[in-house]
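Quick note —
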Amino acid sequence: MLSTSATPTQKSLANQSSHSLSSPVAASRPSLDRDGSLQPPNASAGGPRNMASAASSLAPRGLSLNPSQPPGSFSSDLRSQTMQSRAGSRADLYIHEKIDEDDETSIAENTLNALKDSLVRELKIKEGSENMLEALNAKKAKQTKEQRQRVEAELTASNTRIKELKQRITDAQRSKAVPSTPTRTRNEGLLSNSGLRSPPSASRSGAGSDVDEATESPTFALAEILQALEVEGMTPEYYVGGANNLVDLFKRHPTLKYDLVWSVFGDRMQVMLLSGSREVVAAGYRMLRYAISDIASLKKIRALNTDFMVVVSLAKDRKADVEREQALKFVRAFLDVKDGVREVSRAVVRTIAAVAEQVEDRLRPICIETLAEVLLRDPALLVASGGLVPLSEALAEGTYKSPDSLSSAFLYLLDAPHTRKYLRAGYELEVLFTAFTDALFTYEGVVKQNSKAIASALKNWSGLMTLSMYNFRAIGSLISSLMLPSPTLRDTVIDLLYSLLRIKPPAWATSYLAGRRLTTYGRVTTLKTSTPSKEETVYEDDGAEQNFVEHYTALLLAIFIKAGMMPSLLQVAQDTDDPTLKRKTTLLIGETLKLASRILPSSWSSELQLLPELFAAASHFDDEAHFNATGIVYQISSVSRTLYRSSPSGYAAGYLPSSSMLENMGHAEEAPKANVLINTDDATFRQLLIDSGVLGHSNPSKWNWDVVLKIIEGPLMNGKRVEEAIKASKFAKRLVGFYRPFKFKFAEIKATRNTQKYVRVGCALMHTLLQTAEGIKYLADNKLLRQIAECLAQCDPTSGLTAQYPMFSRDRLTDTLCGGYFPMLGVLSSDPKGLQMLERWRIFNMIYHIVDFKQRPDLIKLLLGNLDYSLQGHPRVLLSKALTAGTKEMRIHATNMLRKYATRQRVTPTGQIISDSKWAIQLLVTQLYDPEVEVCATAVKILEKACNSKALLEYIVECRPALDHLGEIGAPLLLRFLSTSIGYHYLDGLDYISNEMDDWFLGRNDNYVSLIEASLARSFIDTQEDQPHRLSIYEDDLDTDQDNHVPPHFYRELSRTKEGCKLLEDKGHFEEFASTIREYGMQSEDPELITKVKGCLWAVGNVGSMELGAPFLESTDVVGHIVKIAESHDVMSLRGTAFFVLGLISRSTHGLEILSEHGWESNTTPLGMSLGLCVPTNLSKFFSFKPWKHEIPANIALLDTQKTILEPPPVEIQEQDETNRRILELMTELGNMVLYKKAKAELFQLRHKKVPGFRQPGLFRKVLSLLECHHYRLQDRHLVIELFDKSVLRHIVYGEDSGDESGGSSGDEQRTERQRSVSDPSEMETMIARAQKSSI
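Predicted structure written out below.
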């Protein structure tokens, strides 16, 4: 009855199990490969006798292939008997009494088979449920909630049924008599007896088993599994099952691999790898992979002649993909071991390279990744093995979908001269540009993916230096590709230029590209960016950070200008018929001109601004192109004018504000907008009300929300208009009613990007109503705040109000606009009248309770994130409560809330700086004593940013924070204290300065190199850039600080004060740094010395960037040596470090003067202050990297461990046998494309004649030597290997190839004899004794 509902496949499985008596094999699927391709054919070579032995040895042991607990497992009750019997006589391991079977055996078998059928069906149901659950997890939780619940319920029920079926099968097997065995050898007797002595490892799986792992003897289990694998003539399922159990054992006991007896284990592996079944060979590779532990184990594995087997496996056709995949994973496991690449053979690498050349091969991507990894670890091995060609072809043809990861491997090698020699100058990376320069090859997908790789290469010093060789040949070809009449190509190159120059499109760019006129957007933009012009923070001695990204961008822009970017863009703008592309190009020209005037020296930008090519075309009045060129001139002028108006004040040509200043400008309180709509006449106001649609429709979806917002921000700022909107029309009633929670209009709208406009209008409405007495009275009397308070009361545990579906439940806050009420409360909390209203409805009382009970962290985060803390009152008390009494996550979030309040300053019209940040500073100093380190670290970062202001820095020092308990976390803040005399004396009194100075000189200076390089790497990573002016209620703007700022340097902070410079002079550290640069600056071999030089460079640059530290530069004359390093050093990354250091030096006036003498110049502000963005006057000299000598593969000497056959094949064929000589000649002719077809046909003829050479191991070894040392395509490798007899490989693996045997008929007998000689009783006795001892 149980089997009547089985599928045809399950019925066939049941039939197989009834015939073979090995149902665990027939009914389960291999765990080695999920797609089931490991399932071998059912035909057995052993006949009935072997099938019977399979039943006797496999079924009781439970060597299941399925990861769940298999049939045949034993309970813990029987385990105790097993352990007692193991402690008995040794003889019982080899003697087993034959048990007579009674007449009930057939009935028991049928019942057992039915139970196993049911178990198979349930396992499939479970697997399907798990797959469905994984698919649902990839989707949004709210969309699949009900479906997920149903699947989880089905999965739970299935697990219950599986457990019940397993127990029934166990009971049935326990009651069933043990089957008798046929004529037994020693091994078979031992295996049949193991039915009662099966260790837990052989009868359980890694998951879901009830067996206690603590009682498992891994050594004994290993011995039993190896003995089980020793049996010959079993079905492939048997060996795959044993292999899976062994891998499972290695997973449960990772240290077991260190205790392997390789004479036994290695022999078992050789037997499996020489099997005729692909699945068994794959299982053998998998077992070997899990047995790898260290370099010694790799040597033992290679001693088994696995190289030959891997070469043969990888050369097979696609039918053996499961075997090929496991062989490739086995090779990749070598790379995970330290120095494991020294044990990777060139024969294997050459075979992997042959697979990587096949575009249609399923394993090609993983082969390319493997070759790239070998390239990083041992470039000599890869180049000598011919593995560089597939990587270059993959980059050039665009067939590999992640070219940036491949190019990063080349970039790593290009950096240093000892690794660079394996690559060809001007070739490996330049193949990326083929997609752009070959007009016949340009496919959109390839162009776009190669553009990403080019972008990553040009953001790396190795890539920039290499691609700028040969007078900027590669970059010039990219710019020149704009001339090709391909819209896709042009669009991609322009996008690439936007990305590389880090140009963020302005807010009006989308509308402009869509065809809108700029005149409209000019006015709007001017209104939106009207911030106070004097909004900036005062620094002592220009304490703003050096912007290294801007410095690198200035160099990139100079390169593009040198490569002819501007004439090409002008040509595109004039030639293209696509209006969108024309506008996009025009916008890029305008942005580039603005960027050049801002970050490039005047000698670079002044000529660029003239646009001579364009004006020359526009002045030819007799030419038709005159009109087009004139239009482009007008467009560029309009774009430039609009860009100038839309930029922040002071952000004009020749001035680069610091990132801190821009941030403070963003945090500044904007001046009241001069809105012309405030004072409108009655007719205009009535028309606006009509246009809004509020009076004509009660349905809010039909309202014109842009007009509504215009009314709120304009006429309603006037008290008279507010009263008119309240009393004379339904405008105010309908609009405020829309926001009332219990009308379920605003509160039921789905939260999407488009619906955020309702929140914006709601916040504007609150702000407007608070501006007039009529608005305040209306808001106080309205039910809106009362209903919001009631919604909060539903979440207040002490209020007594409950609701089945609270308005502020987690789901509602996530799915709907209910979270929009909290920004409205934030607007109210920013005004004294609003605070009074919140207090009137006891809203603060409820928030106190919600924060106290900590049951709703999501709600607390929304509340704290939206309240305004500018005014003294309840919000600040709430914040301080959350800072000290909340959970760890709540305290971190509350600490982040203090960021904008601790760094905000206001400037009065008279220029006086007003700071109300002291309360925030006090709270942050208190956070430094928090028990959680993460909270302290967050507070330190915020205080460190506040230290940019001299006034705030002095106040922080006055608070005298103790930072000793924070160690390294508090070090950056202490460093900032050094920048003022007050902080210097404070730290000097703590003996901090002298100790820290010695630490930096003796080691921290070198550690700073890795810190600054990691910071620069993070800065150059492309992050998702949000659109400007986008408002999102749920986005935590305060957590977006990615710590991309430059790590503070001790000597930079020390050089800010006269006392620090005096100490630096007395200690003589600067002279030491300068002498190190002079003596070892040009060294390129020793990595430690290079790091030392980098550390000295950063120290010199940071001291030289301060006006007080600049005199040290002249006294030591170190700038000339740094310029020499930047222009002529062999290590490209060290050149980049020197370039950034020169930028630091150019920040000081004295340093800029010294650099100008060496041919470097920087842009300055109108007041003459340097921006620190220096570039060389002669760009070609800076990028004059000389081509290096390429190391050809023939000259590369590999280690002996990286060769499979040590002696290379002779140049002249030395073979006595004429047929064998002809075979070797034909092998060499296969590499000749002219003779290829003829050689291939002749080889087939020889195979058809069954010449004896194809059965001789000696000849096969010579052929393998040719395959190892020369390049052959994959299909040719497969052809050659298939010509030889299967037994030849066995002879080579077992080292029996000394003679030229004419046949291989005795291979099976020799293999059997070898097995028996290796695994003699004494060897097995030793292993079992160790297992017995460990189990006791």
